[in-house]
């Protein structure tokens, strides 16, 4: 199995070391004549400048510098093509000194340090009690009042027995919706607040509660929230709750406009519905190494810059970079999860089952319909 190396060694350090503001530095005298003129008061002294901040630890402890990073993220959200280069450029953009601001903040950060900054923001962010979260906590349990984990397992097992499906990759388990939205909020804070009309898919959605959870809390209203599962009895349990969703009152009109997509399908066989997603959840713990490899090839069709959360194993594909490796409890016990970003343009893939004619290696800009 080909695994993407995890480079996560600095995260404990960042945030622990208090940042000391560097001392102000006088620029060295330009030349003797200049110093002579300056001593006579005939030449203006150059303004004092602090050296630029270059390290994540410095930036993370300097609110104005963090503000600059957030600004860069806001204008280059997930799914921006060649995003990290653009983020670095915006962060490092210099501001001319002026009479009112003689020493504006300067950053000279490289991509690696910037990723460290984002990782620190991720770990520092907590789930807030914003209106959308309160709404989800109130309404989702009502929508799923008859559901339990045991019931989901029974539905899955019964259908698998009936259809003679023996592959363990279809084993049922659940991620708690609170934990899912916490990951979503942390990702949004650390990696940017999504482009317009983002699109979420839970690949292997089970009963679909996380699809609704995403719909409730989307920081930028989703264009589409979708759930795909091979087990019809499960995905049906999501879809049949749509009338309840439609009857809900008190949710913002933008949220009500979300298009839901429920598919009983093997998402590996048919990536057409989800390949434009900006945020994907893949709770694929039960996948064996062969299935992971196949899935990784199929995932190469995702758009550049999409973010994917996977459980237990990262996507074994160098098109994706691991941004975060974290721990979370799921229904079957403690799990490791990964947040990965696709850094390459969409690729055509050998062995593609559906939509063969449509998918060629194409620039992502052609697919901008979903933001
Ligand atoms: C561990 S459950 C996750 C359920 C839900 N996403 C969650 O995290 O709470 C995994 C689900 O993925 C489905 N699944 C596994 N492989 C699949 C595939 N290739 N195509 C569609 N569904 C699949 C299984 O049927 C199962 O319902």
Overview of the molecule:
There is one protein chain. Helix content is 35%, strand content 13%. The chain has a 7-stranded mixed sheet with strand order 3-2-1-4-5-7-6. The longest helix has 15 residues, at 149-163. The protein is built from 13 helices and 7 strands. Strand 4, helix 13 (289-299) and strand 5 form a beta-alpha-beta unit. By secondary structure, the chain is α/β, with parallel strands linked by helices. It has helices at 32-39, 56-60, 63-75, 83-92, 111-124, 131-143, 149-163, 177-191, 209-217, 232-239, 242-247, 253-256, 289-299, and strands at 199-203, 224-229, 259-264, 279-282, 307-311, 320-330, 333-342. The protein folds into 2 domains: 49-96 and 103-124, no CATH class; 131-342, Rossmann fold (3-Layer(aba) Sandwich), CATH 3.40.50. The protein is elongated, with a radius of gyration of 24 Å. The chain binds S-adenosylmethionine. The site of S-adenosylmethionine has 21 residues, from strand 2.
CATH superfamily of the largest domain: Vaccinia Virus protein VP39
Tally of individual helices = 13
Supply Rg: 24 Å
Estimate the strand proportion: 5-15%
Helix content: 25-40%
> Under the CATH scheme, which class of the largest domain?
Alpha Beta
CATH topology of the largest domain: Rossmann fold
CATH architecture of the largest domain: 3-Layer(aba) Sandwich
Q: Structural class of the secondary elements?
A: alpha/beta
* Order of SSEs: HHHHHHHHEHEHHHEEHEEE
> Number of folding domains?
2
Could you tell me how far the N terminus lies from the C terminus, measured between alpha carbons in angstroms? 33 Å
Uncertain segments are 1-6, 8-17, 351-371
Strand order of the largest sheet: 3-2-1-4-5-7-6
